[in-house]
Design brief:
By secondary structure, the chain is α/β, with parallel strands linked by helices. The protein is built from 15 helices and 20 strands.
């Protein structure tokens, strides 16, 4: 991964392949952002005019390259848009810095070193720029022999080193911001790797092995229930969904404990390593990206490991409900009734509504430890994509204050989210004549119906939130900002922030 360093060296004297500066959208044209004063001076204070001549406006995501002035040790200046110029003394938004750094990092593929002279007004800005660089420089080419050859011949590897100018190498807060950015980004990128892996390699068993390896590396406790243990334990939801596949299901419990912690946060992730829809087979054109249906489990896995790497003063338990949903002679059928781990029975009306079934068992398992809060994450419903689009996830909860807190945490770290209700009148649609509840209800408001189903399996009195990341978990379009094509690692940063807030006593 790209190495991050801090430097107080002036941009002209730094040896690098490029100097990255920020340009904002001002009322009368582009404005050179703070951090680039030395670069602007080398252009006789006319850099904004030069950029405007080249077509730059300062809009978010815009990138303009121009030769560096004489006397610079770097040959190239890369100007990246920060969006609207902030009001006086307001400072630049962390997400604007994160996005700009990501755009530049992607554009500098193949470079050995780049210096980022973006606006820095404290450790928060350093952390945001660092995250943007590390997330923007991500690539997944594990399965491309041609890409490996190209790297060897053409040097088209991700940016090797990024120096953040304005950061003080000996300042504890600045070093801490870099360390946090590295931990969060490395684990988020590991989640992206898992999401991008083909399902013939990332089976439930293989995912469980990855969790076991991480547990050993970071001193975590791990427990893996295989198909025999799941049958014996009565996990009817997970076994029902995974029963049709030769790749048998797993339930992984990954635990981080801090000796001084007095709060416990439980995270539950949907881990359908491939979703064919089961007997209720998905139509043609809807199967190709279904390897991403384990994105929730990937996010939970990454968040627990990050909490350990940051040594947060909180206990965090991750539950990964792993299964492959396939049609076969042993697959669950529409009309079957499953007895869940909680003891409740569920009539399966649609085998493609499988995520809620595996989550139900994991939610009840998490509830038995009476955590202070449970947050589940899942690529759960197409209805949520229709409601919120491809870049925003929905937040539901049994507690309005907690729902707001989760939403605020998501927005704080730059993950677009929206609060969604759990309308009681929709619960009746899941009434079943043969079981305690059906796994389907009214078609309209399907994302909310799924949330209401999950609520049935949360222990009494436990604060809970549900994140439906079906939209932003997998980017089928082109890369933007620091977001690549493919797996995005959506919700990882929100979960880490929730763990930090819980550790600080600021989350209920």
């Amino acid at each position: 991964m790209t190495a991050l360093t801090l430097s107080t060296t002036a941009a002209p004297g730094l040896r690098a392949d490029a100097i990255v500066i920020g340009v904002a959208k001002g009322a009368k044209g582009p404005v050179v952002a703070p951090g680039a004063e030395a670069v602007d001076k080398a252009y006789d204070g006319k850099l904004a005019g030069v950029l405007e001549t080249l077509g730059a406006s300062g809009a978010e995501g815009e990138l303009t390259k121009l030769p560096a002035p004489g006397g610079f040790k770097a040959p190239l200046v890369v100007a990246v848009g920060l969006g609207a110029e902030p009001e006086k003394d307001a400072g630049y938004d962390a997400e604007a810095l994160r996005q700009a750094a990501g755009v530049a990092a992607r554009a500098l593929t193949g470079a050995r070193k780049a210096a980022f002279a973006l606006p820095v007004d404290g450790p928060g800005a350093i952390g945001a720029i660092g995250e943007g660089v590390l997330l923007g420089a991500y690539s997944f080419d594990t399965y491309k022999e041609s890409a490996k050859d190209a790297r060897a011949k053409n040097g088209k590897a991700p940016l090797a080193e990024a120096t953040l100018l304005g950061g003080k190498p000996r300042d504890a807060a600045h070093k801490g911001a870099v360390a946090r950015a590295v931990a969060v980004s490395e684990e988020l990128n590991r989640a992206r790797d898992l999401i991008n892996m083909p399902p013939n390699d990332l089976t439930p068993q293989a995912f469980a092995a990855v969790a076991q390896g991480a547990a050993k590396e970071h001193g975590l406790k791990v427990q893996v229930l295989d198909e025999k243990a799941l049958v014996k334990g009565g996990y009817g939801g997970i076994m029902g969904v995974g029963g049709g596949s030769a790749a048998t299901p797993r339930l992984v419990k990954l635990s981080y404990s801090h000796p001084k912690a007095d709060k416990h946060l439980a995270l539950v992730g949907k881990g359908i390593t491939y979703d064919s829809g089961g007997i209720s087979l998905k139509p043609a054109g809807h199967n190709e990206t279904m390897k991403c249906d384990m994105s929730g489990a990937a996010a939970v896995f990454a968040a627990v490991v990050t909490a350990a790497r940051l040594d947060l003063r909180v206990n965090v338990t991750g539950w990964l409900a792993l299964a492959e949903n396939m049609p076969s002679g042993t697959a669950v059928r529409p009309g079957d009734v499953l007895r869940m781990y909680s003891g409740k029975t569920v009539e399966v009306l649609n085998t493609d509504a499988e995520g809620r079934l595996v989550l139900a068992d994991a939610l009840w398992a998490a509830s038995q430890e009476a955590p202070d809060a449970i947050v589940d994450v899942a690529t759960l419903t197409g209805a949520m994509v229709l409601a919120l689009g491809s870049r925003t996830f929905g937040v539901m909860s049994n507690d309005e204050a907690f729902r707001s807190a989760v939403h605020e945490a998501a927005e704080e770290v730059g993950e677009p989210a929206w609060q969604m209700p759990l309308p009681e009148h929709l619960r009746k649609g899941m009434d079943s004549s043969v079981a305690d509840i059906a796994n389907m209800g009214e078609r309209m408001g399907g994302g909310l119906v799924a949330g209401l189903f999950l609520r049935e399996f949360v222990g009494e009195g436990i604060t809970w939130a549900h994140l439906d990341i079906a939209g932003p978990a997998f980017n089928e379009g082109g890369p933007f900002g620091y977001t690549p094509k493919g797996g995005t690692g959506s919700a990882v940063r929100t979960l880490v922030r929730l763990a930090e807030l819980t550790a600080a006593g600021d989350l209920g």
